[in-house]
Amino acid sequence: MARTSKIKRETKETSILVQVNIDGSGKTSVNTGIDLFDHLITSFGKHSMLDLAVKAKSNDGILHHLIEDTGIAIGSAIDKALGSRTGITRFSYSSVPMDESLAEASVDLVRRPYGKINLSIKRSQIEGMSKEDIEHFFSSLVQNLNSCIHISVKYGENDHHKIESAIKSLAVALRTASSLDKKQKGIPSTKGSM
Length: 194
Prior knowledge:
Number of strands: 10
Strand content: 25-35%
Shape: globular
CATH class: Alpha Beta
CATH superfamily: Imidazole glycerol phosphate dehydratase, domain 1
Helix content: 25-40%
């Protein structure tokens, strides 16, 4: 069964279209109109090996709404594509360096939303994106992915490197956790339900 989905989110604030193939090859097509944001989402798709297409447009000119709604739509699309989560590996962990920065992500694809995110950003702006919007993107993505995810930047000096290592560590952990485990029969839980 194909693990794919398409989410269209239309509000007075934004128009977002996201397409996901969990079993892709990392092919991405991203257009949000924000260069750093496009770069982060592209890195996420590439390193999670998801085929990911994102087209996002602001209807009200407010970047916060665009960034938040894009995170919601991507998380929702991945959640939908994972389906019942039968046969997945479920758990994973990744540690990714980016020059002087190091980030770690732990993922449990159980169907209970919880996120603990520490990006250790010092500057108020990075490449035209506000610190709070970057942090909000991560939390919106994680919450709507409907999973338990912890992301922590362990150390680093360059804020760009910190957020890039964070998104890549999440991507690599998600890649493994969402992969099909040939030994796993049914739902990977002692409850028999996610």
